[in-house]
Structures are given as C-alpha cells and as structure tokens.
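ARCHIVE CARD
Drawer: 12
Card no.: 0347
Subject: one protein chain, sequence and derived structure
Cross-reference: see card 0346
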Amino acid sequence: MKFMRSNAASASLAQWLFVVACLPAIAGGCRKKSVSPTATPWPISRSDPREAAPVENWPQFRGPNAQGIGTGRPPITFSESDAAWKTPLSGSGNSSPVVWNDRIFLTAEEGSRSTPDLYVMAFDRRDGHLLWKVRAAKASGRTHPKNGHASASTAVDGEHVYACFGSQGLFCYDFDGNFVWHVELGDLEHIYGSAASPILFENSVIQLCDAAKNSYLAAFDKTSGKLLWRTARDSTGSWTTPVVVPVETDRGTRFECLVNGGEFGRTGRLTAYDARTGRELWFVDGLETLVTPVALYANDLVFSLSGRNGPIIAVEPGGEENVTGKRERWRLPRGGPYIPSGIVYRNRLYVVGDQKTLTCYNPGDGSTIWSARLGGTFTASLVAADGRVYAA
C-alpha cells in the first residue's frame, strides 16, 4: 500500500495510525540471549525493500506478504482537518482495512454481544461511501471481550473477497457482494475466540483453524471452496495469521507456510508447512503458550515473537523436523509482544511490548539498538513506510 497525503485510502488508514518516528532513543543494553557464531549485525538500510506494497492494493492482513511495509509518503499528523473523508461504521470489529484498487473491505459484528450478526462490507476508497454490506452468519460460542467475533481481516484477489468467522466458516463473495461459496470449518471453540485471517497462495485460500481441541491448518480452492489439504496441529489456541515465504533449498525453491502456535501447559511452537501440500517441514519450540503475533521474514531469516514478554527467536528456514537450537541464529528469552505483530524494516526489527515500550533490535544478532517508552496502550500491528514506523 502506498500512503499519500492526498490519497483517500491513506486518510482512512490515518485514523488508526499513530506515528512513532523520531522517537527519543534510550540506550539499551543487550538482554541475556543465545547467539549462533554465524550471527552478524545487519547494516541499516536507507531504502524500502522491493517487496513493499504498491499503491493499488493491500490485499490481506498486513499487506501482500503480511510484513506490513508500504511505499510512498504517509502523513505524520492525524487531526480531523487532515482526513480526506470520514465514514461512520455500524457495528464493531477488529479486522484491518484491506484494499484493492478503489475498494476497501472490512468485517463487523452487529446485535447482541453473545450472538451478533456477522457482516462483510465494501467501501469506496475515493469518498468512503458504503458500496455493499452482506450478512454472512450469526456468531456463536465464547470469545474474549477484546477480541470479539469479527477480528479476522478479509483477503482479496481482485475478483473475490474471502472472510473467516471462526466456527461459522469461511465465506467467499464476488466484488459486488454476491455469495460464491461457504465451507464449514468445524467447532473452533475457544474461551478467547478466534482471529486468524485467511491468506491467498497461488490457487488456494489458506486458513489457520486453531481451537481448544482438534486444531488444524487447511487450504481450499479459492474458486470452488474445495478442500485441497488439511494438516492436524497440536496447538490449543493461537490468534496469529500464517505467512507464506519462498525458501531456496538444495532441491530448489519451496514455499513454506509459517505458523506460530501455543499449547496450554507447554511451550509454544513455530512450525513451517509446505504451502502446496500441507506437509509439516520443521519446527522450533520455546514460544509462549498464548501466541498472537505473525511470523516475520527478511533477508532469509524467520522471526517469531511470542506473547506476554515471551521469547524472540530468529531461525534459518529450509530445515527438516525439529530444528530447535540447530538453525537458530539467535534467541532472546523475553521481549515478545502480547498482541501486536512486530516489523522488520530497513534492516531493523521493531517490537511494541506489553509495557508500552517500543524496542529496536538488530535482526542480524538480536542486539538492542534503542528502546523508548510510549504513552497509551498498543494493540494493532506495526506498519511502516518512508522511513517511519506506525503503531496504534
């Protein structure tokens, strides 16, 4: 997504972004950590990565590669006078705006707190008016008050909109709001609800279905909803979203689907699956039990940040089976965020922790570069563009 001051979509996004650029840095010493002999600091970059999202589309949670990086020049002030337009929203929800050309997509819940109606909505990016609104289902089951029933963001491909509402299933609509297909996902009951967003890969929609029991990861044909593969998981709850990354191996390029996960009474796990077949490839143990942040990927390294001040782990992808301690570049014993996903931007890893602290790490060796205390509470995942990192 390219953010521009004169761009209507950026004005919409500006309502929920708060810039944390030019922060007064507080010198930070290195936490006690394990570091591989191959770990070396990364030099800072002065330019955005080639993978930064273009102006037209922000097609899923955290952008096209789920890394939260856009292009352009976003604003740094967010007053009423800075907004190009403002549209009231009916209902409530925690999903992030998803954009394709001149359309913005959101999910929402309306009605009673225990069994609200669940909606998918489309807005005109140019002036904010509602284009269409369709009722997908009626919610059921428990959830955390901060989570709700409409936390998963949609995914779009220019023709279809995909929305997941946990136990109510995965829904597909065309760009005019017409129903295309719906698949049942089973009982995804969890005391804290569900929040994983669908992602698109080649001809499939990949959906994480973690619950208190019978968790799994699955891929569906994005045209028909037909099940392509399904892989059982030991996780008993996570609220993260999968990420697919290309990895070069001795046998050529393979696409790894990275998923954080947790299990009550045990430590959590970062797992990589073959995005085309669902086969489990490798895993790293040692995450916190409750995991919400999305895995990050930059410069051939995967970063897993687990919640409630849990570990931060940098691991080399491309392994097989249990790679705990074997392919880890470095590991910090604490510092992971509870809910917001971090971001690797211009060769720096930024993390908003539970204690209202923004910390900048060197992704190459895990060393702390600086840390700054912020006012307020942060829940939304970090995004970045034009040399600035935004938090909300």
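Annotation on reverse: Confidence is low (pLDDT under 50) at residues 2-31. The first strand starts at residue 2 and ends at 3.
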